[in-house]
Amino acid sequence: MNKKITVSLSENTVEAVRYAAYTCTDDFWVKIQPSGNNAVEVIFSPRKDKEIDQAEKRFTEELADEKIREKSRMQNIATSEMIIRNAISRFNPSFVHDEQPALSVEQEQELDELIAEVEKELQEEMNSSRTDDPQHITQTWEEVNKNGK
Amino acid sequence: MENKKEPEKYTLLFQHWKKYQDKILLTNDFGGKFEIPEEEFQSICSKNCSLSVTDVTKELVDKGFVAEMIDPEKHSLSWARRHFSVLLAPELHIMVMTSRCNMQCVYCQAGSPGKQDKVLDMSLETAKKAVDFAFNTPSPVLNFEFQGGEPLLNWEVLADTVEYIREKEKKSARTVSISLISNFILMDERKADFLLKNEIILCTSLDGPECVHSKNRHSENDISYETVRKWLKYFKERHDNQKGNSYRIFKPGAIVTVTKNSMGHAKKIVDEYVSAGLESIYLRPVSKIGYAGRNWNAIGITPAEYLEFYSEALKHIIELNKKGVSISEQACIIFCSKIFDAGSGGNYDVDSPCGAGTGQIAYNYDGSIYTCDEGRMLAMEGDDIFRIGSVDDPVEKVLTADAVRACKCASDLNAQAMCSRCAYMPYCGTCPVFNYATQGSLAGDMPNNMRCAVNKGQIDFILELLKDKENEELLKKWL
């Protein structure tokens, strides 16, 4: 046996109807459907051994509570969100990042080889391609002007 | 000097309420709780929640119920304390050393196979990668928890992993703790000594006196009860006689899983803990997950049955405390921490959002990483939905995986149709894995959810107890 309740949407939001109906789903199966004339029908059928007569009383109470919740939410949402934003931005815990681990033996060896290779190239360059420097462009200002000129 | 201007109006700031006997219990997201006569409440609501000057008491202001007199610093800190898990990187790193087990408990959630198949063991290479992964996450605190199956079945790898963690700890700025959850059947003096010298926190399962424990926890030759009692005694003695040691020995701990076999034994179970020298008991109802779900007819209990059991046990614990016996109950501590605004209670299942992937992660034996231990257990049943990566993946990728984000959304009680309207929302939390496993959706169906019914019933009972000043003082001492 089902119980059908018609709810006006000019006095209640459809969200309030839906939430109020949802809270009754422990005892009843609930179907909500449009009912013309800016209204919805809420149809209850009992789950378990609940008396269908209890459905209307419970739903009506839940709907009244839901209307208060909607009002209080409208009043309070800005303040609540301000507190939460403040909490998230100000009270982040400190995080730790350990120092990067040292290079592995293989990586260290590879790096040493690279350094040795570059040093060798530089040395070879110094020995083989040194040329005259008539304009003293390889010398620093101090070297060129060592007498303070 | 400039005079502070009084607000022109005062508004009652509340999000949740509940009819509570002849009164209305109001609560808010900052942990505030206030009782008001129903008539007065209806009158305030009919005036768009506005309060007269005479209504504005210091208590209402202090608890964050007057919108115009909110202290942003204080109430933001309070909010942060109770929702800490959303701001964290994982602290709890659960390592499943093996999926094998040498017991066959009637409520096993992990679907453990027998003790033979060693391919279900974590290799040392995987264990080290898991430890490296944990040290690459940014939390300043790392708690490693070795689990199974039965972790002692993979002892050599476990011991080497402990040493590896302690070595890494020396080069790190982290605070590190290590715990081991074991049935103790494979424990011996050599292992015990190694564990204690490495400052491992030891925890086991003790479901009550032998007649209850042995019905729940089956072992070869039925030695589980005797073994657990023997090693609890051993570890407690080592704890009590540790003077002169160069290392700290922690008190051993134990947890209870309440099944149909526990019904009618509430007081005896508490007494068993007292006689074992344990100072804390954690009562938890069996979950309809894994093997327990398939065995539900034999072991399952309804929320009403559990709540009757819980209230009898908690009343007994309080009576024992009044006689000078030191024993506390962990679920009560979790809820009281939130009721008294003393933090989140340290349980990621009862946080909003839950700690899946942010408070904790679980490394399976094969190197797969899951949002939490429950998510890993579900994978053992063949459903990998909570897998978030592997030990070879970059930390950022794992911690921001789809499953982590889905769990955050599903367990944020503000987004839950019923929870967001519940007066107990500031004290509660939901577990997406439990919801998914038992109801087929991460968000769950709260009007028909067992944990919702249990949590609400427990909070009802605790609030009732708190009406007595002596009880209140006593419960505050547990925090």
TL;DR of this structure?
The complex is a heterodimer of chains A (149) and B (479). Chain A is of the alpha+beta class.
What would you note in describing this structure?
The complex is a heterodimer of chains A (149) and B (479). Chain A is of the alpha+beta class. Chain A is 51% helix and 14% strand. Chain A has four helices and three strands. Chain A has helices at 14-23, 53-90, 105-128, 141-144, and strands at 3-8, 28-34, 39-46. Chain A has a three-stranded antiparallel beta sheet, covered by helices on one side. In chain A, strand 2 and strand 3 form a beta hairpin. In chain A, helix 1 (14-23) crosses helix 2. The longest helix of chain A is centred in the middle third of the chain and has 38 residues, at 53-90. The radius of gyration of chain A is 41 Å and the shape is rod-shaped. Chain B is of the alpha/beta class and 479 residues long. Chain B has 19 helices and 18 strands. Chain B has helices at residues 38-46, 58-62, 72-82, 124-136, 155-170, 189-197, 210-216, 224-240, 266-275, 291-294, 296-299, 303-322, 330-339, 373-380, 395-399, 402-411, 432-439, 450-465, 469-477, and strands at residues 10-11, 16-20, 23-27, 33-37, 50-51, 92-96, 103-105, 141-147, 175-181, 200-205, 217-219, 253-258, 280-281, 283-285, 328-329, 360-363, 368-370, 387-390. Chain B has a nine-stranded mixed beta sheet with strand order 14-12-10-9-8-6-16-17-18, with helices on both faces. A three-stranded antiparallel beta sheet of chain B has the order 2-3-4. Chain B has a two-stranded antiparallel ribbon with strand order 1-5. In chain B, helix 9 packs across helix 12. The longest helix of chain B has 20 residues, at 303-322. The model of chain B has no long low-confidence stretch (mean pLDDT 92). The interface between A and B is medium-sized, with 32 and 38 residues.
